[in-house]
Amino acid sequence: MSLYDDNRDTLWHCLTTLFSPPPTLLQRKAEAFVTSRLRHYNAVLFVETATETFGCVVADVLRRARRTSHCIVNLDEVTDPALLREIRAALAAKSGYWTLPVLFLNGRVVPQVGAIRDA
User: Fold this and answer.
1) What SS3 state is found at 97?
2) Superkingdom, according to UniProt (predicted)?
């Protein structure tokens, strides 16, 4: 990829951001839900339910890590379906994955978690 391609991609991103509609209140609320947890904890695991087998294994590993502040977010506790849909969209935008569980370490997604689950 050349410098020209990088500049063209950056220009495209700026233009689409500039002309896209502003986020709705619900989208801002979902974004705040996700980013507040990523900001306050070193490790954040988003799971579908508290009983999901793979999520439980990853959660158990997180609980054993004594030096890591962690948060496990069960999305089945979110009662508003519209907010849940926006939280999933915010997670997909941040991680690149639509499937759960999604693990973030120090604000960055751990892609191996999704790959292990899908294998």
Assistant:
1) coil
2) Eukaryota
Over the range 45-65, which residues count as b (16 or more CB within 10 Å of their CB) and which as e? bbbeeeebeebeebbeebeee
- Enumerate domains of the chain plus CATH numbers: 23-118 (3.40.30.10)
In order of 8, 65, 70, 79, 115, the CA distances from 84 in angstroms are: 35, 29, 21, 8, 23
Rounded Cα distance, 103 and 111, in Å: 8
Q: H helices of 20-103, where?
A: 25-40, 53-64, 81-95
Task: Please measure the distance between the N-terminal and C-terminal CA atoms of the chain and give it in whole angstroms.
Answer: 31
Specify whether the CB–CB gap between 76 and 48 falls below 8 A: yes
Cis check: omega of the bond before 101, within 30 degrees of 0:
yes
Q: Rounded distance, CA 73 to CA 97, Å?
A: 16
For 96-106, the pLDDT digits (tens) are: 888 888 889 88
- State the Rg of the chain over Cα: 16
CA atoms of 119 and 115, how far apart (whole Å): 6
